[in-house]
Amino acid sequence: MSYFADKQDLVADIFSRYPDSPQGRRSGLMPLLREVQDAEGFVTEERMHEIAALCGTTATEVRSVMSFYSTYHTVPTGKYHLQVCSTLMCALAGSDELWDELVTGLDVQPGEVSPDGRFSVQKVECLGSCGTAPVIQINDDGFYENVTPTKCRHLLAQLRADHKPEPDNLVPVKVNNQGLQMMANGQNAGASGEVLRPLSSSELPPKPEVKG
Ligand code: FES
């Protein structure tokens, strides 16, 4: 069954943010993916084909965009999707041990959901909070920082009781329902298509001098 068939206004709104051109249409790919994932929790092959048709591209390209961003899922995730940063700073600070603690403690592997539906796990690349390594992100909500094995066990105990603790920091940039990026404090992080404009020649930086 089509997801977007009865959401033509939403689709039109998403495409209105981009130039009316084949390239502009393809720019709608990520917001369409986000829409499906927020509504259904993951993006099936069928949805990839639907998004590809809307954007004038192929399902293979949709999948390839998804594979670049750990935020998109092709399989269902648990109520608490634990993403462990496995890049260098976090690895040096003990993220491998954290990962072992999670997969053994929860008895769940990447791509699986624990039998009670609560947990899924994923290794991700740098979450941009290297100074507070090791870092775990839960869902799209926030970062848990300087996660020692004790802090990890405490976190899991609270999640098992469905008492998700407040994150140490919110995910810094979210996308609001107008499709605009905003900071955790609610300020817009970018500009809307209405105020963006090409720079005039007087605003462009000087061209570098070519020597020799
Ligand atoms: S290396 Fe883990 S947040 Fe950067």
UniProtKB/TrEMBL annotation:
The keyword Metal-binding applies. The keyword Ubl conjugation does not apply. Keywords: 2Fe-2S, Iron, Iron-sulfur, Metal-binding. Residues 194-204 have a biased composition (Low complexity). It holds the Pfam family 2Fe-2S_thioredx. Residues 189-212 are annotated as: Disordered. InterPro entries: NuoE-like (IPR002023), NuoE_dom (IPR042128), NuoE_N (IPR041921), Thioredoxin-like_sf (IPR036249). Its cofactor is [2Fe-2S] cluster. Gene3D superfamilies: Glutaredoxin (3.40.30.10), NADH-quinone oxidoreductase subunit E (1.10.10.1590). Belongs to the complex I 24 kDa subunit family. This is NADH-quinone oxidoreductase subunit NuoE. The lineage of its organism: Bacteria, Thermotogati, Deinococcota, Deinococci, Deinococcales.
